[in-house]
Every structure is written in C-alpha cells, then in structure tokens.
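INFO  loader      accepted 1 record
INFO  loader      residues=490
INFO  predictor   begin
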Amino acid sequence: MSKEFVIGIDIGTTSVKACVFNINGDLISEVEKMNTFHYPQQGWVEQDPVEIERSAVLAVREAINKAAIGKDEILSIGFSAAMHSLICVNKQGKPISPALIWADGRSYAQAETVLETIGQSIYLKTGTPIHPMTPLVKLLWMKETNYDPYLQAAYFLSIKEYILLCWYNQRVIDYSMASATGLFNPSTLEWEPELLVLAGIEKEQLSEIVPPTKLMTGIKKDIAEEMGIEPDMPFVVGAADGQLANLGIGAILPGEAAVSVGTSGAIRQMIKGIQIDELQQTFCYSFTADTSIIGGPTNNGGIALQWLKELVNHQGSFEEFLAEAEKVDPGAEGLYFLPYLNGERAPLWNQRAKGNFYGVSITHKREHFVRAVLEGITFNLYQIGKALENMAGSPRKIYVNGGLARSPLWLQIMADIFEAEIYVSSSHHSAAWGAAWTALVGIGTVQSFEDIKKNIPMGKAILPNKENSEIYKVIYEKYEKLVKTIVKHF
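INFO  predictor   done
INFO  writer      dumping tokens
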C-alpha cells in the first residue's frame, strides 16, 4: 500500500490535537483531547505534563483509527506546540513541577523589575518581550523565591521538549521554541550566556537547539505500539504554533499576515532575518536559521465575547449571539470597547490592564455591546498590526484562522478595518497542517516551505467595504486616543 498520509500534532493551551492529512492538505481525521487547568493561587496557571503527554499518544492513535489507514501508509509526523511553558525535570526525566504555562502571572514583580532596569537591552538581544509569560522571567521568580523544584531540577523544559524526552530520550528544542524562552539569541542561534547567569542556570540544563526539520528516529517501542505507528516512523521536531499557523495557512511571503483569534489572538508576519522593534510592542521569534516571525499576541480574543455572552445571560448559540451585532451599523453608535479583560500582552505588555466600555448611552442595547466587543477585539489587532508595518510593511492579504474565523460578520469587520483582503482556509487546523508540512520538508517528500501554498484548501476572499473602511478610520483614531489615555491609570 502506498504511503500518502502525514500527521500533525498540535499541543495547544486548551487541548491536544492530532490531525491526519493527505499530502494535498485535505483533513482526513482529527482527534482532540482537552487539557486540564489548575489554579493553585490567584494568577497561577498550571498544567500536568504527564497528562498532556498521555493525551498526545492517545490522540495520534485515535486519529489513525478514525482515518481507517494502515501504519504503513503514514509518511511522517510533525509537531506544533504552544510557547512559553516551563517544567522542572529531574535526572531521570521525570517532572518535579507542574508546567507553568504562558498565562501564569506569578512572576509579574520580576518582570516589572527587569523592565525598569535591563529590560531594554535583553529585549534588543533576544526579540522576546519582558513579560511573566516567558520562561526567563518564570526562572527569575523561581530563583528569587527558592522554589524547591527549581533548586532540585536537572533540566528545564517546555511541554514539547518533555514529550520528546519521553518518546526519544533526547532533549532537543527547535529555534522557535528556544526563541520564545527569552534565553535565546537569534543572531547566534545559541543560548545567551548573560541570561543563563541571570536565571541562575547552566547551559547543560537546557536542550540542544535544532532546526524545525530535525529528524527524530528510534521512538521507544512501547510508545510506538501505543500510538499504532511503526517503530522506525520518521518524526520531525517542527516548531511553535505561531510559526506553523502562518505556514499552514500560507502567510509566508512579504505583504501577507496571519491573524489567529480563538480564546486569545495574535497577528504575525514572516520575514527574512531578524527585525526587533525598539519600542518593544512586538516579538521577533526565529523559525529557521534565516527566517523569523514578527507579531504580537493578545490575551483577549473570543474570551471577551464569551464573557459578554455569560454576563447578559444569552441562552442561544454563539452564532446567534454574534448575529445580534448585524442589527447595528459600524461604530456601534459611539460605543467603544477596550478589550483588556484578561490583562494584555501586545501592544501594552501590561498584565494589570483592565477592560473598558466608553460612550455608553441609555439608547444602547445588547446588540450594540456585541458589536462594540467585536470591533474592540479587531481594533486591538489592528493596533498591533500597525506596529508591524514599520518592519514588514502594510499587509495586502490577511489569512485568518481560529474560532472567530467562522463568523462572516467578524471577517467583514476585519476586512473593513484593515482595508485588506481576508482569506480563510477551509481547514481550521493551520498549526497542525504547518507541522505536517514541516515533516514532509524534513523527510524530503516536498522541496520547500513555500510549496505549501499549492496545498492549502482556501475559500473565497472577503473584500473590504470602502465606505465602512472610511468610517472605521475615523473611529480608530478615537479608539487609539482612548487607549493612550486609559493606560495611564492601570
């Protein structure tokens, strides 16, 4: 039987997904396992790395069974993962701490101290913003609080590295995941010695840095049996979910941006080389040895809409809730929403930021608030995108994925505010397809990352409405002034 399928594993914050694709990018099957969150204290957010590793194994097995394909039909497996997690591990490779994920804010005081002192120099060297999300700042918290797992740790790993260690007994990390730690210098593609000293750790406690096409072979036989794959199955290390989401949706050339909006959100562009924003509004994370991704993440995407839906006790479906905004013209009759309900990363990088409605009138109804929240989320992404323009130029095409991409109204709002063509893949698994394509590049089945553009099922473009775009230009000017005013009070 000829091999013609490839698998992408996507370790997200909310869930673990395994997706089986054919080499044209058509989704054959998918399995999703939800992750458990633990909140031991206010601002602390943890996950169990053992649970996530087990979920990854089971997800692959079930996806293969669901696709009804033989193990000899699978070409390779590629790996995508969320950034910024940190686990303390002993010499035997066992976790001695939970995984502190990106949303964990316990190191806020350490982030503030670094920002006030040497933050600018660190950021200019790494391209990674100083924020509680990053492993560097988490390590500073561990060091300063004498966190016992930190004191006992032999190694410090992300969830992705931990899984690879479990499966292959090797400690490796790709450029993008290393870049997101805040300990990596993208100019040298090495761990930065000065920052290792700052964090109080040794280079040997971190993993070997490898390219995303690094081939892994010799998976443990019991793991292969559990997954339902051949023991000699070629596995490719892959990259972080942001880089692979751009790749998987085709936003890889100049003038192309990717916007992902699920619970949180991000806007990103691929570039050649390294470009670091001196204003510290965005990140610059490596992908390959000579390409990077620049962009900014927001804490507040669909979570803001879910909050409003629960607040007003809307009993209908999410689609019905969003449809209420169709009753209202652009601008929600003067109602503005600053979407900082969950603190904020880009463009503010302020975990103490709070959400605000401005311009509330007695004539405003529920539909106005829904429209204002949709527009506020999009204005925030647009503001991040404006910071990217100085380095990558204005995007002509925007490729969108994530839960909100299923809303035609929101897609039109995006097109109108950005004044750009909006493209949506028929698959909502861009990071998994990017991981799968990286696997195909790694084993030589396809020639380049760029060739993926021929293998992305894409729907019809959403074009901007010129009249609405002109209205939004005026509204955005006021929105930006409101942001500059309100941030003084956080």
